[in-house]
Design the sequence.
């Protein structure tokens, strides 16, 4: 493959994980319509932004969206907003049962390997993150694909600029070298020592000081054959359950004449029922010796809480931030409130609150405490279900 081909097709395919439980940005995000369908940072949904970003890479095989089947129609509606040439090559793979990310990725991986062979480079994205600018994103993915071709599973790490407690971290090991095609500034790459869960504030500050830890973006890329080999070696129960039912996925796609939607077969549905519920982090990432960490230079935000969204949409002043269409009036001294509401809101002498009214629910939360939203949602739902 010459340099021109590499630049025109940074990767062979892109797989987008579009599950979503609708918990962290509740009540705007719900189980019926989770965060990826929200318009954040743009007039377009996060999912549509992810689809458009994927097609900037010009993947040869196409784009695949693995999803909870309850979201199939909503995802098809978003795909319909793409140019026809892209929409016709963007395929939706609804899972018959939710079995976490290891099963989801093996499912789509098997189809891609049948279509393009074991050397095909697959980029994994989630459907609900903000990433930019586009040119930097494309260049970084191109460098990751170069590294992946040397039989590496490449994870994208971001250098932290504050002690975040809402992200997982990756500790870098010895340097692998730099990756460049000669046209851009080289990108550093490293061995991976370990993944860590979301730390407390003191640990996050220590990570920032030590300089060896990167935010885990949740994005990675790899040759599909290597992914299959490593998952089969490290967590063989997943391939053992799903491989027999997925041996002719490419023929199903061909039979449906490249239809966008590829519904699960009865065989796949039965296979999923017996499949382990385990994340790809535990099934593969924390066990394999094939990892490489690439230092991503693009901007990234997983919008993991109302506090994060409030900071993202904060204006230049300390006054109340409000979404377009929200009518807010303040009486007395009020500073730093974030309001998202379809109803007019009056604020009297309170500060640093998150106020969200959507889908028939009102959330009032102190800034800095939005990690409690998931628990508040669960408690409220239990109370509503218990009412006579």
Sequence:
């Amino acid at each position: 493959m010459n340099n021109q081909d590499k630049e025109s097709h940074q990767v062979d395919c892109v797989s987008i994980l579009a599950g979503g439980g609708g918990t962290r940005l509740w009540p705007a995000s719900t189980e019926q319509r989770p965060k990826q369908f929200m318009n954040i940072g743009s007039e377009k949904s996060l999912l549509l932004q992810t689809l458009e970003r994927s097609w900037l890479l010009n993947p040869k095989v196409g784009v695949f969206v693995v999803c909870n089947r309850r979201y199939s129609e909503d995802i098809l509606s978003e795909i319909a907003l793409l140019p026809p040439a892209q929409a016709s090559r963007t395929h939706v793979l609804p899972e018959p049962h939710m079995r976490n990310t290891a099963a989801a990725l093996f499912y789509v991986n098997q189809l891609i390997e049948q279509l393009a062979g074991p050397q095909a480079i697959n980029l994994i994205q989630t459907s609900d993150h903000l990433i930019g600018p586009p040119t930097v994103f494309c260049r970084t993915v191109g460098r990751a694909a170069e590294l992946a071709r040397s039989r590496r599973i490449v994870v994208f790490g971001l250098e932290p600029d504050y002690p975040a407690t809402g992200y997982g971290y990756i500790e870098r090991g010895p340097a692998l070298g730099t990756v460049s095609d000669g046209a851009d500034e080289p990108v550093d790459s490293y061995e991976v020592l370990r993944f860590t869960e979301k730390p407390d504030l003191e640990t996050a500050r220590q990570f920032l000081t030590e300089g060896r830890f990167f935010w885990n973006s949740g994005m990675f890329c790899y040759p599909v054959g290597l992914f299959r080999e490593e998952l089969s070696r490290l967590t063989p129960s997943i391939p053992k359950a799903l491989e027999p039912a997925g041996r002719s996925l490419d023929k199903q796609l061909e039979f449906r004449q490249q239809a966008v939607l590829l519904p699960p077969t009865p065989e796949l549905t039965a296979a999923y029922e017996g499949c382990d519920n385990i994340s790809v982090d535990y099934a593969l990432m924390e066990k394999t010796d094939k990892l490489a960490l690439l230092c991503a230079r693009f901007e990234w935000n997983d919008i993991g809480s109302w506090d994060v969204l409030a900071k993202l949409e904060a204006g230049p002043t300390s006054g109340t931030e409000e979404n377009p269409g929200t009518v807010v009036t303040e009486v007395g001294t009020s500073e730093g409130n974030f309001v998202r509401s379809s109803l007019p809101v009056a604020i009297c002498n309170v500060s640093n609150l998150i106020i969200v009214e959507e889908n028939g629910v009102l959330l009032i939360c102190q800034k800095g405490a939005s990690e409690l939203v998931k628990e508040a949602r669960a408690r409220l739902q239990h109370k509503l279900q218990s009412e006579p």
Remarks:
- The two ends are 67 Å apart (CA to CA).
